[in-house]
Amino acid sequence: MKNTIFKKLPIGKTGGGGLKRTLGAFELTMMGIGVIIGSGIFVITGVAAAEHAGPGLVFSFLLAGIACGCAALCYAELASSIPASGGAYTFAYAGLGEIFGWFIGWCLTLEYVVAMSAVAVGWSAYISNVLPVLGLELPQAILADPSSGGAINLPAAAIITIMALLQLKGSKESARLNNLLVAIKLTVILLFIVLVAGRIDPANYDPFLPFGWEGVCSGAAVVFFAYLGFDAIANSAEEVIDPQRNMPKGIIGSLVMATVLYIVVTFMLTGVTRYSSYAGVAAPVAFALNEAGIRWGAAMVSAGAIAGLTTGVLVFLGSESRLIYSMSRDGLLPPAFSRVSKNGVPTKAVACVWLMGCVLGGFLPIGTIAELCNMGTLWAFSLVSVTVIVLRVSRPELRRGFRVPVVPLVPLIAMVMCAFLALQLSAVTWKVFFIWTAVGMSIYFLYGRRHSFLR
Predict the structure, then answer these.
(1) Residues 6+ apart with CB under 8 A from 268
(2) DSSP labels, 333-364
(3) What share of the chain is helix, strand, coil (3-state, %, to 5)?
(4) How many other CB atoms are there within 10 angstroms of residue 231's CB atom?
(5) Nearest CA to 323 among 32, 17, 26?
(6) In terms of Cα–Cα distance, which of 212, 275, 303, 243 is closest to 50?
(7) How many CB atoms are located within 10 Å of the residue 318 CB?
(8) Cα–Cα distance measured from residue 71 to residue 231, given in angstroms and rounded to the nearest whole number
(9) Which region holds residue 427: left if phi is over 0, alpha if psi is between -120 and 50, else beta?
């Protein structure tokens, strides 16, 4: 069994499954910005400020950004040297062995499906703000999950369904829509900054660290959710033109731009109104404008946020479907998931992600969803960092379009910071993660190991 579960995927044989190369550096950067900024600024900032860090959330974003920056450098090197669909799963499979590849793939499944669901819940919250302005009222029963007083969050399930149908059209069509929506989103964010700049009350920053540095650290663990876009880019490697050059540009560029915007917008949010008022708010940007008395701005920002959050659902859905496709192509999941349509899309993988997302987004609250997502991400980032160190020793001749500076120091910093942030998550999150891992390992030993193409 040892030789099977630790056998490594040959790097020269990764890829080649029929996906079409249609994406460049610009599309990748826009893809990263689309998912990073959407899930962070428009959804999770308010809850994180109210429950964890207060105005000190700007330090939380900085801390999480540093951890992500070190991990992003590792992703950039591996994406330029192993340009295959599957992202971190493929990296770990090729660098560490099959059992590690499966584990990281299972962690990423938790990350992407849960993140997509959380963004869809935020999308639903913003749509609820816009509909009354248009004279439309929907019953609470179809606007909230059961624990929030409803029956099902129907708008969340609806946006996941629409994006799944778009994914079936092909990656180029999805990228075009993403570029348009990201442009709208950035315009809305700049509008928000301009509108609230003159409404900031310095008294709202006192105290700046109401929960102390412990709150800043726990806040960093929660807002880590906001940085999930750049690693999703790696899953599209087989659809990228000249991936050795374009993958690093897309990964690093989107992360830098997102970090700057996060810090600025968080500073504005906590200056307009007290941090405590954001408790349980899934649409903090619109809420802040309402509190400032700029109701027309709140409606406009909500409309822009809807466009922005749409990109998050789109990218996460596409990333997870490509991950399932890659695991199926390697024999670890049933072969039906790796069959590609004439449009170059793994249709059954898309359908699987759509079903899981509708269940989570329709029936779970946003707070529960976000923490579950972060645990899988932190484990994935740690193993990617380990893979960089291992491949530098075992495969020094490997062509690398981008190289992480100061190895092994930078990967080690990423590992330490990810471990630290994981320890800030709640005991309940750890328990759910262990259960998730146990289920995943059962699937691997009962099916994946037996059907792996490397046997």
Answers:
(1) 192, 193, 196, 197, 200, 288
(2) S-GGGG---TTS--HHHHHHHHHHHHHHHHHS
(3) 80, 0, 20
(4) 29
(5) 17
(6) 275
(7) 30
(8) 9
(9) alpha
**The total number of residues written for the chain in this structure:** 455
Residue 154, both tokens? 């129907």
What Cα–Cα distance (Å) separates residue 259 from each residue in 41, 67, 409, 410? Answer: 10, 12, 22, 19
Distance in angstroms (rounded) separating the CA atoms of residues 230 and 34? 10
Kindly list the distances between the CA atom of residue 218 and the CA atoms of 144, 337, 420, in Å, as whole numbers in the listed order. Answer: 27, 37, 10
- For the chain, the maximum distance between any two Cα atoms, rounded to a whole number of angstroms, is 65
Supply φ then ψ for residue 240, to 5 degrees: -105, 135
Q: From residue 36, give the alpha-carbon distance in Å to each of 134, 254, 316, 396.
A: 29, 8, 10, 32
Pick from 107, 105, 103: nearest CA to 87: 105
Rounded Cα distance, 28 and 101, in Å? 24
Burial class (CB in 10 A: 0-12, 13-18, 19+), 335: exposed
CA 145 to the chain's CA centroid: 22
Whether this prediction's pTM lies above 0.90 is answered by: no
Per-residue pLDDT of the chain (455 residues; tens, 9 = 90+): 445 788 888 876 555 555 667 777 777 777 777 777 765 677 778 888 888 899 999 999 998 888 888 888 898 888 888 877 677 888 899 899 999 999 999 988 887 888 888 888 878 877 877 777 677 777 878 877 777 777 888 888 999 999 999 888 876 677 777 778 888 888 888 888 888 888 899 999 989 999 999 999 888 877 876 776 667 677 676 777 877 778 788 888 888 888 888 899 999 999 999 999 988 787 788 888 888 888 777 777 777 778 778 877 887 888 888 889 989 999 999 999 988 888 778 899 999 999 998 888 877 666 655 666 778 778 888 899 999 999 999 998 888 878 899 889 999 998 988 888 788 778 888 888 899 899 999 999 999 999 998 87
For residue 143, the cross-strand partners are 153
CA dist 187 and 54 (Å) reads 26
Give the integer Cα–Cα distance in Å for 191 and 24: 29
Look at residue 371 in the predicted model and tell me its pLDDT: 63
